[in-house]
Specification:
The protein is mainly beta. The protein has three helices and 16 strands. It has one domain: Beta Barrel (Porin), CATH 2.40.160.
Length: 280
């Protein structure tokens, strides 16, 4: 049921409309509150429930210059363990349109493998803000081409500073497979995402948050690393009293494997659920 032929992914139109719609939408809430909420939403271990829908359009897949579309549904939910410690769960469920690179039209649609990061973080955020914990990989892909068919786990960590309008930090993890289909290659994959955000008046911000990856099991010279460079902009806005965070960014893969995309257009819309919404 997830295999079909299509030329234009409907999710792209939907997400483009939702993300770009905030440009013309009036701000109904206090601008100062929304500016602080923008900074909070840029903190991966903030005490803030958020449900981002992040759409990545990866262009230029060889040999037919195909486009892969990955919509990541990635809820972030904090839990209060004690007065001093929080547990922040970050789950990523990808919905993928994977092109058949041997053709110019065939695609496979489905759910990819789910990743979950668990960050144990101090409840009081002062100075260096950080979180540490495991990252887990589950072979939930609905099609062979969308899944590694491997169970994997490893360490994950994040650290950041918030100073004035700046929110700067780094998130990193490494996964190693420990079980799964013996016919598939073992997993040994590294991910690092640095993020640099400069917050502007009225809850606008400039952002750069490329995702650098390394596949330690890849064969061939130059096929291990993918290093994108780029950035974009975003804004926290409200529909009624409900806050949203919308952003658009583009990245060029200056280092990439032979079969990787040339560049990526990322559009994200996140529903934000701050504690104040539940205390009223």
């Amino acid at each position: 049921m997830f295999l079909q032929k299509t030329k234009t992914p409907r999710t792209v139109f939907l997400l483009t409309t939702l993300v770009m719609g905030f440009l013309a939408f009036p701000t109904l809430a206090n601008a100062e509150d929304d500016s602080e909420l923008a900074k909070e939403s840029q903190n991966p271990v903030a005490d803030l429930i958020s449900i981002p829908f992040q759409n990545n359009m990866n262009f230029g897949l060889e040999p037919n210059h195909r486009m892969q579309n990955v919509l990541n549904v990635q809820p972030v939910i904090p839990f209060h363990l004690t007065d001093n410690w929080n547990l922040i769960t970050r789950t990523i469920m990808p919905i993928i349109k994977q092109p058949d690179l041997r053709t110019t039209s065939d695609d496979t649609w489905g759910i990819g493998d789910i990743n979950m990061s668990l960050f144990f973080a101090p409840a009081k955020n002062e100075g260096l803000i950080w979180g540490l914990g495991p990252v887990l990989h589950f072979p939930t892909g609905t099609d062979e081409v969308l899944s590694t068919r491997k169970w994997a786990a490893g360490p994950s960590g994040v650290g950041l500073y918030i100073h004035g309008p700046w929110v700067v930090g780094l998130l990193a993890n490494n996964l190693w497979s420990y079980a799964g289909n013996s016919d598939r290659k073992d997993m040994s994959q590294f991910l690092a995402q640095y993020f640099v955000n400069y917050n502007l008046p009225n809850a606008w911000y400039l952002t750069s948050a490329p995702i650098i990856t390394a596949n330690w099991e890849a064969e061939g010279k130059g096929n291990k690393w993918t290093v994108p460079v780029g950035g974009g902009f975003g804004k926290v806005f409200r529909i009624g009293k409900l806050p949203f965070n919308g952003s658009v960014a583009a990245f060029s893969n200056v280092v990439r494997p032979d079969d990787a995309a040339d560049w990526t257009l990322r559009m994200q819309l996140a529903v934000l659920l701050p504690k104040s919404m539940f205390s009223n």
